[in-house]
Amino acid sequence: MTSGTLYILGLGPGDPELVTLKAARILGAAPVFAHFAKRGRTGHARGIAAPHLNPAAEELRFDYPFTMDLPVTDPRYFAEMGAFYDRCAETLSARLAAGQDVALLCEGDPFLYGSAMYPFDRLRHRHPVQVVPGITAMSGCWSVAEAPMVHGDDTLLVLPATMDSDSLRTRLRQADAAVVMKLGRHLPRLRGILDELGLTARALYVERGTMEGGHATPLAERDDSPAPYFSLLLIPGRQDPRC
What we know:
This protein is of the alpha/beta class. It is built from seven helices and ten strands. It has a five-stranded parallel β-sheet, sandwiched between helices. The chain starts with 5 loop residues before the first strand and ends in an 8-residue tail after the last strand. The model has no long low-confidence stretch (mean pLDDT 94).
């Protein structure tokens, strides 16, 4: 039997109207769709996809064994998450081996901090795979914030706030413009680094981006309470002379 195709679909930063025409077409036809979620909650990618789904499709839900419970420095993290992604890949493989196409949903773009890259690693040599790019969270956020980011020879750096302070400080000192993701409880520490580097006045805090209730505000006006999952920091470049 001919294998089905695994379609890994980037669904964009939250607004269902920012799903690409290609992703919407595949969603509307796929006999099976799969998505990741935190246990007990509706997966964000599932919510974005809802208007575009084939109503007759089988749904495969993959609940993470944990999210922020273990730091990535804990040896159990990679062991347990690796086993989880192994199980996800085998579930997907069973449908593909039966000749069914499967749409695997991913918020933002699949290859930018996306969970879908891990089943991709495991299945790319076993079944046909097509990856549909999505609008990234960062581009959705800088559009909402009306913050042009780079021009001319500016460089753009993308960093996770989970990095150690010395690494963050070194990289931010070298960048013309930056996006800092995964803020969470690291926001106060990051603010201290930006204060030290003289970057706080340029920094913009964006929460929920293109989603309902999304907003952008100067970091200087934001308190130090932990940042929610759907938030990031923008440090626009464009500091050199421009047209």
